[in-house]
Design a protein that fits this description.
3-stranded mixed sheet, 16 helices, globular, alpha/beta
Amino acid sequence: MLEVNFDGLVGPSHNYAGLSLGNIASATHAGATSSPREAALQGLAKMRRMMGLGFAQGLLLPHDRPDANWLRQLGFAGDDTAVCRAAWEAQPALLRNAFSASAMWTANAATVSPRPDTADGRMHISIANLSSMPHRSIEAGQTGRQLRQLFAGLPGVVVHDPLPACFGDEGAANHMRLCPGHGEAGLEIFVHGAGPVNGFPARQHAAASQALVRRHRLSPDRAILARQSNDAIAAGAFHNDVVAVANETVLFTHEQAFAEQESLYTQIHQLMPEAEIIEVPASLVSLDDAIRSYLFNSQLVTLGDGGMMLLLPEEARAVPSVAHWLEALKEANGPIGQVEFMPLRESMRNGGGPACLRLRVVLDEGELAALDQRFLLDPAKCDALAALIERHWPERIAPEDIGHPEIWRQCQSARAALLDLLGFGQEELL
């Protein structure tokens, strides 16, 4: 079995509205002018790089934005243009939420438990409700339609509806899996918060993580519930994947990521003795530096030769403490032997690094062939996507542009062109 990444293609409405409470990067760049075209091309370049390393690569599509149907639920009436104009005039914040391109961060799309881990031998996928933030709570419906379409040819996959909104669930960004190999039974770690902390909400609720363990049919020796530390949340680690990442036998984590750190490590080693924990001490890399650089919001992957590589954002080597630690990591002769950097400035400025942009799914070759192939990439499709992005995605979006009908129409026509290129009907994924 192999791990396939499904990255979110950055949508044409990518902007810096600063909607994500507790996300330091999002708040810092609120009100800046974004570059949607560059953002989408940067994300596509990362997908190409993963393919170049030998990995199967898929994508999930931008959602329909601005979401006029959501605005209609809030009492605005008329066609799409009238609804968006009325919302902008009445409450601009509502249109900013309806315009968000945050579905690009597919680590929040769902939580996935692969077949080797589950009692019924089926893959279980739970769509995240993302109920803690208005702009993200809009996403579940369109995300669910895409995932159900993607896996429609696989009867051994169960796609669950989102949990009730009162139980906040933020998807795979708070879920890690340790295993001897991707196709072998693994240990799944569900990380929740307890908050609010310094006014920042704990987005993943313990009750939601407990529900996911039950609905995914995981036995007690296949699941651990862990609590994120208050220090991490207060510093801006709004999801666990900002301070920890796992791949096969390796957990790569900051010393201050978890509330009951030693207890968690003991549980991991009891249930999976071969697990190796690489902990970055706070004395060498502070939480602030880790979060500013997104050291842990990286893709940790196993290469064809069996060694592991850490794919990081360019920003990681601009922070001296992080750059120094990464040099020591490469020289340590440990399981992570390679380090590589990708330019993802546009996503990073909005609070999402390499790990935020991808959803991990474990499949065998037959299952991969049975997926809806429109969601899978090859070099020719990447070339066609790049050309389409160059033609249709806005070059810039300033804060005041969000209120202009011209930009609404451009975003909608860009997405329509994308659906046409990939062979989707205009209403198929709405």
